[in-house]
Amino acid sequence: MSKVVIVGASGAIGQALCQHYLTAGQQVMALSRQPEPAALTKSAALHWQQLDEQEPSQLTSGLAHCFDPAPALVILCQGWLHGDTMQPEKAISQLSDSQWTQALAVNLLSPARYLQAMMPYLFRQQGIKVMVLSAKVGSISDNQLGGWYSYRVSKAALNMLVKTASIELKRRNKTAVLVTVHPGTTDSALSAPFQARLPARQLQTPASTATRLAAVAEGLTAEQSGLLLNWDGSVIPF
């Protein structure tokens, strides 16, 4: 039985990934600020850790448990687009410090803390794969519509973080792969306010998204490290 680590496991995609790998007979180490959801299948192969990555001691001990022994795959699933009183900005006049703070905290700083803390493990684990969920709207060259300022900027920054970290990782471990991945539009609380305008069949169930992401993970090679990939494994230009 191999091991998979899912960070941000309480969200729709995170839960679906946990369920997918449990069904596939994998050991799943789940990390989240939230308690284990009741909807997840109860299994001895699921190890749920509720922790706050802003607390260094919690993060250090949580990852030490996850990497003893080391997993074959790590997936970071953090993401934030809107809240009860904050919606994606359509115009630059709508920018606010509170929206910037929240978008950067979840979309950039949280995965950055995890990557920083786990990098010593990644340096020495042969063949390890790390996928960080990003967004196609974080591609600067793909941006033709504008809007969604803080979300776009925070995801573009995440792509740069992962690209830069992948270069450092390759110098120490040429067999490792670290990528950002656009999961596609998934039926979740994040996408709920915007689903009505979607083209037919674009919206995926969390289970379908998990299956597609698992297929991307299975096919990853060290030569792809640093890329931004689409849900089908194709490359999205930065």
TrEMBL record:
Domain of life of the source: Bacteria
Stored Gene3D superfamilies: NAD(P)-binding Rossmann-like Domain
PANTHER family in the record: NAD(P)-BINDING ROSSMANN-FOLD SUPERFAMILY PROTEIN, SHORT-CHAIN DEHYDROGENASE/REDUCTASE
Protein name, UniProt field: SDR family NAD(P)-dependent oxidoreductase
